[in-house]
Amino acid sequence: MTSGNEILPTRSAVQTRGVMSPRRAVSAPRWSRRRGVLAAFSVMATAGFVAASLVPLASFPTRAEATELDPLSLYATAVHDAQRYQAGDAPGLELERASDYTVNVKPTPTPTPTPTPVKESSSGSSSSGSSSSGWSPPFVTPNPGSAQAIAYDMVTARGWGDSEFACLVALWNKESGWRVNAFNASSGAYGIPQATPGRKMASVGSDWETNPATQITWGLGYIQGRYGTPCGAWGKSQRSGWY
């Protein structure tokens, strides 16, 4: 018998002691030549499999190529030929139709020119005279110098200056050349002031055919009543060719 404090070896203690015993170190696996060959072969096999799986995908045609490679049916071929025939023959028909078309242009008639009426020169009033009565002016030796001297005295007597007399000289130089017997056969104008008709000057004196003073007196009265001054009459003559 043993005392209560004595520890007896038991089975569990033996087992514990067995478990706690140091383990034996495991040796690292060694790389062998056989394992290297197998690893290289595995890599090559994997790469070959991947390449073999990609080759069929690359050989497939694209969408556009697949459309072009689609085989044409008999109906599609017939429709294509019909469209090609219409596109090729339609312009020919239009050209043939256009070649028979002609255009006739009606010429524009040339307008007939309208004659411009000629204004008759006159220095008289609205009542006109005519030389158809057969009257012809008498011959008088022209003396423009004396006629202008008479006119100058009459101009200054009316209060007009030398400038107005200069306008009068230019005006009657153009109309008659200061000749008492100046006669215009087309209008019947007569005398230094070219009164139309000449017998109007009879209101001043019966010697209107030969007397320069009678003609000048009538002419200055006509100018003053119609244009105001000799320069006014001269301006009208410059614009229209008559006064």
UniProtKB/TrEMBL annotation:
For the region Disordered, give the residue spans: 1-21, 100-140
Question: What are the residue boundaries of the Phage tail lysozyme domain, all occurrences included?
Answer: 149-202
Q: Which domain of life is it from?
A: Bacteria
Renumbered to this chain, the Low complexity biased-composition regions fall at 121-136
State which residue ranges cross the membrane: 37-58
Q: Name one Pfam family in it.
A: Phage_lysozyme2
Listed A to Z, the keywords are: Membrane, Transmembrane, Transmembrane helix
Instruction: Using the record, list the residue span of the signal peptide; answer none if the entry has no such feature.
Output: none
Q: What is this protein called?
A: Lytic transglycosylase domain-containing protein
Q: Which organism is it from?
A: Microbacterium oleivorans
